[in-house]
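Class, carefully examine what follows:
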Amino acid sequence: MIINEVYDVLKDYQLTTSQYDFSTDWLGMAASYMSSAAAREREPSAEALLTLGGGGGKLQRAASAMRQTYRHSEADALDRLARRVWDWLDIRYCH
């Protein structure tokens, strides 16, 4: 699931500390959102994905902040993730 992939990258980059923080800080959802979705094997909502990777979403803002501190390769990885989130949204909700 795309949010698991994003969560793992953000955790590797020390931009989130737990699924609870990821759910609230990155997805704009309740603290238990990610663990609940995983337990129920539910796909992430369009709202959560738009918050995460939408135009000007949190991933893109984080990438911009990383570039200002010369973390360019990590910023590029976040931009790629944002594009993957958009692609996932397109496949799931637009086709």
Observations:
- Helices lie at 2-12, 19-26, 33-39, 46-53, 58-68, 72-94.
- The chain has one domain: 2-94.
- The chain has a mean pLDDT of 91.
- The CA atoms of residues 64 and 75 lie 7 Å apart.
